[in-house]
Amino acid sequence: MALSDVKVLGSWPSPFVLRPRIALHLKSVNYEYIEENLLESKSELLLKSNPVFKKVPVLLHGDKPICESLIIVQYIDEVWSSGPSILPSDPYERANSRFWAAYIDEKWFPALRGVLAAESEDAKKAAIAQVEEGLVLLEEVFGKLSQGKPFFGGDQIGYLDIALGSFLVWLKVIEKISEMKLLTEAKTRCLLEWAHRFSSHVAVKDVMPEADKLAEFGVKLRAKILKARAIPK
Amino acid sequence: MAVVKLFGAWTSPYFYRVIWALKLKGIPYECIEEDLLNKSPLLLQYNPVHKKIPVLVHDGKPICESTIIPQYIEEIWPQPSLLPSDPYERAMARFWIKFADDKLILLALSPSISKMYRASGEEQEKAVKYILEMLETMEDHGLIGGKKFFGGDKISMVDMAFGAVAHWLGVIEDAAGLKIFEAHKFPRLQSWIQNFKEVPIIKENLTDRDKMFALLKRRREMLLASK
Predict the structure, then answer these.
(1) Phi, psi (5° rounding) for residue A32?
(2) How many inter-chain contacts (A to B, CB under 8 Å) are there?
(3) Which residues of B touch A137 (CB under 8 A)?
(4) How far is CA B138 from CA B190, B195, B223, in A?
(5) Which pTM does this prediction carry?
(6) What is the number of alpha carbons within 13 Å of residue B112 lying toward its C-beta?
(7) Residue in chain B lying closest to A64 (CA)
(8) In a mutagenesis test of the A interface, which of B67, B72, B133, B140 is the best target, namely the one with the most A β-carbons within 10 Å?
């Protein structure tokens, strides 16, 4: 049956690609993973499936493409409704989860990327400060939402766990570049512990990239970004 | 005592997205107008992270972000529905809402943002190019198949997310002395704009064009004079 065909078009370094993969694992849905090379030109399949943004991840369900990582996660949650819920069931809590996921993507992630792409020491320091500030805020959010349970989503991995958790290996790479710990015992103890739990979760551990491999990729990506800006490295 | 309060600003298309959702669903609410240059302590308390409008307060609980608020409203008051029930159609709707949100930031009228009427020369040219690309994508990908609205025959959250294009863009063009949207180049979009503005709730709830034009013109003159 065509509709049971599930594919994920992705790229191993992309934190956004981890999101639908983790969601599908949580729902025990089998899928085919198709790798796209981010440093080379885009495939026909990608351009056809996501003509507007031309980005990964794309979920292909039968012949229907679904784009944008968090939209895909919500789609997965709604279609495979018999599996564990990813979004909370209460509308206010859902709004809250969506709010913080949007914060992570629109405010925090650009700061993280800003460290990688920083052209000067000052720019790097400023970006690092923003990343740290964001993590302190998210530590507070974790306290409020988890209510003593292991995840943002409570007993189970939820929407916000996936939204933030997908950046954990990149965070390690950024820590390496910054030469400092950004998740610390002192300021973000709960998040630090949550990070270990999340990364070792059965639905997560097999898809997280290796930190060393990602760090190597990070160097190439930085070079590509700076070249595009035509600034000497 | 009103159960639903909405903090907003009369110039903001993001504010209107929520007004339209509430009115289409017949939900009574109390409106609190904010001076964006002098935000109230209450607003800052309800939205400490972004300090922006719109903010919906339902039974004392704040909900922020103009894409998140309508989804909350839809979940609490499902009828009449403003999002498709089919998961795939819903994912498509969310996709276009996100697209609208990402691209329309240039039409936001908050003092710190709009490059269209604030800038001139190269900066303005870039903003214009960006808007044109957005309009082309809407025309070529969003409105194919001769649909009346983005979601088909009925108005939905997607149309409301693009509300800025239907009304605010024209005022900004006039204030900045630009012509970006040419109807003959965007026939589907032109049709959509007419369909959208004919919906009674929309027609009755659009920001005062003349008032906004006067405000933008004043601001633009001040900005260009200070450079």
Answers:
(1) -100, 135
(2) 56
(3) 49
(4) 11, 15, 31
(5) 0.94
(6) 3
(7) B88
(8) B72
